[in-house]
Design goal:
This protein has 502 residues and is an all-alpha fold. The protein contains 20 helices and two strands. The protein has a two-stranded antiparallel sheet with strand order 1-2.
Amino acid sequence: MTSVHTSARTPTRGKPSDAPARPIAWAMLSRALSVPLILGLVCFLPAVIAAQPGSGVRDTAYWLQLVLTCYAGARLATMILSTRRRLLQGVFWMFVYIAMGVAPFAQVVIGQTPTPMVGPRQDLVTAIAMVLVGCAAYDLGALLASRRPLRRRAPSARGSGGGKPALAHPLRLRLLVLLAFAASAFYVLKLGGPAVFFSSRQEINETVAASGVVTEGSNVGSAFVKGFGQVPALLALLFYTRRLATSHRARRTPSTVLVWVALAALNLVVNNPISNARYWFLTVLMAFVFTAFPSSAAFYRTVLATGVVGALVVFPYADRFRYEEGGQRPVQSASVFEPLVTKDYDQMVMFANTISWVDTRGHTYGRQLTGSALFFVPRAVWSGKPEDTGVRVGQWMGLRMTNLSAPLWTEFWVDLGPAGMVGGMALIGYAAARTDRRYALAVTRAGPGSGSVLAIAAPLIAGYTFILLRGPLLQAVGKLAIAALCLVLITTFRDQRAARRR
């Protein structure tokens, strides 16, 4: 341990000032940015929204929503300014600040919601309060995780299999590449060729419906075709991206570069933003950026900081390719905050509607979560398989369009009530904090190298966090399960370098 600390303080030969200059420069930069960043997220943006004209009532819901917005803004600022890259926690607080904070606050001020609220105003008050309590539980779980010592794993240690990091087996990784090309080719051919992937989401959905993989009342077939057509291709690209980003030898190997180029072209077809949901493309983009720049604190902070602006300005208009020409919804906005009350951010009002639904039907006591866990079971086999939580609430509300969100707080509330929601959010906070600490070790120079599975899994989960938090879970778990299956199949705990020496 003494030698490690001594070497960390020893200046690099030929560049004696580089080692201390970077931390000092960032310390000065963080102090310069901290005040305007915190004031902007916690004070300025909520104040601008509060000053907007509207018919909203400044009641308990208003003040609770303001508290939640400021709390989430302060926590997001903490994530951005932190000296550690807290990947999962940073994305969590970015989602909470925008989808559960800023957008619902604008809706309360203006007096308009994307989805009608069918219950009493008190249900909205309960929803906001429970989101606030859930966020506090998440923080508590993260705090408990930080108090628990993290056992460092030595990649080169022999005879301690339990302490070795998870690595991608080279041969299995090549098989994953072959699976990616085969599954994506089947997906493309099933839908009629690459051209359909550059038309619109509407045409993709119609083609999938006409392809025969969808049976009446069940989308399991289409979910598997789309999942295996997209997820292995993304994972293979991420592994090869990390290899090129961390290995000089890989960048000088033509075969590795050619495989990466082919995988990039494949992902441009099956995972492009034109034919895919915005949340999925956001997952692809974030996973790629955090994989390509694993140790760049600047990119981490830039993504979190610019993500707020993108969610407010870009994201509501990013669905222009969802419909065919002439079927697109016209963009009409007199204010930058109008899209927040008319389009995508229905999470808080749907929580309120779900509370109203539970009050009339009762809790489901694990049924909804079980249906999400057993997503792969077709309805022909399980006739009583529960539907998406958002769909069930939308049907109860009498809406024709039931593609509604069911945020993670809602899923816990429906099945387990307030106590279950608090416990579930605390467990998620604990797991996120532990994963962030493991990831920080995996991307350091002393980490397990270019084959680290966690260095790929953490960015992928971070990007997919938006989908998991937005819900419903039944729609979200499919691709996540396929990704987990692929990672398990290629993972090894055996030191490949030692094996080659033998």
